[in-house]
Model the fold of this input.
Amino acid sequence: MNQTTASPLQLTERSAILDSLRGFALLGVLLDNLFGFTGWGFLTLQQKEALPTWPVDGILGFAELSFVHGKFYSIFSLLFGIGFSVILLRNEQCGINPLKIFYRRLLLLAIIGAGHLLFIWEGDILLLYGIVGMLLPIFRNCRDRTILIWAIALILSPILIDVLRVIFQFSPGSVFYEQAVLIDVKNNFPKDSNSISQYIYSSTDSWVRWRKWMEPGFFYRYADLLNSNRIPKVLGMFLFGFYAGRKLMYINLKDHATLFKKLREWGLIIGIPTGIATAFFDIDEKSVPKVEGLIDTVLYALSVVPLCLAYVSAICLQWIKKEGNTKWKLLAPVGRMALTNYLMQSIIGIILYYGIGFGLGGDIGPSIYFPIGICVYILQIVYSTWWMKHFNYGPFEWIWRMLTYGKLLTIKNQKIKQLP
Done:
């Protein structure tokens, strides 16, 4: 290549399998986030059992914790690491320092994530990706074996961290949590569980409630991320993705079919029973620094990554079997505009469930909100397919790339042929 200036990935260079995996990940992320949007996660067990849709809600909620929770964000983390490898290899082939582009791209992602977190929804993950992603270049010159060792060590590190938390009785997110509580006290936020579970879903003074709800959101979010050891988990999955991208697995799927079969087999063998056990022990609500909480930590570490890799491998094997002519391609347009769709899921969730919108949340369970979520996702497939027929990029992707590369990009669509 004789290109001397950095530019975004050309449409003819896109990988359909990666876009389809992003689209698939967005479905799981939506189903997982509905736990927060609808208020199901704030209800006590007694409140859940009082709903007319119990015990179906309990079965679906248990299944979500077993097979969805954490697994699809892990797919996104894996794909993020692959994306880093693409930026690194592509720009180095052009004789361009890739780090300048990479850090600018991450800074912009962090800014978008901060806006999402502070002004739209407190469950944002983009800011964390932008921050943790800054560490990836440290590993750019490491050997493959070293990258895998670091990835495995980081994925398992929460076990050691939580053992230390039990021994020394400390909470990594305590400073953030204390600040959040101070803000709630200042705002006279209700303390009893019944009021909290209904607070944001009431139409009474909905905008005032919205402001009080959002004000401490950043602090509660990062207290939870630190206490759940999300940073090493995310970085570990980034490194798995970086390794896969460096090996060009997404281009040469057939060459890695044996590996995919092993990952699918062992991922299901390990991930299914530990995932079910994770959901079972989650019910007791005993978490670190209580010693019983270490069971949750170990089971979570042994369930999330194996199932994540099993899901990805199963799709890759189906892709190989069908030689790319698979129904998974229907999800590629959703994945091509993943940033836009992720942000739209938050906006739609708030409009549907919060009191400032239709106020459907607060007293519904998975038997109601899962079908609604699937309908929202189908809508995303439809409008993403239409959009990508007319435009090169999703709206937020277009802005993100223009700011990253400092050039005006053509948004009018071109006929393209994607890579496998």
Observations:
- Residues 6-13, 416-420 have pLDDT under 50 and may be disordered.
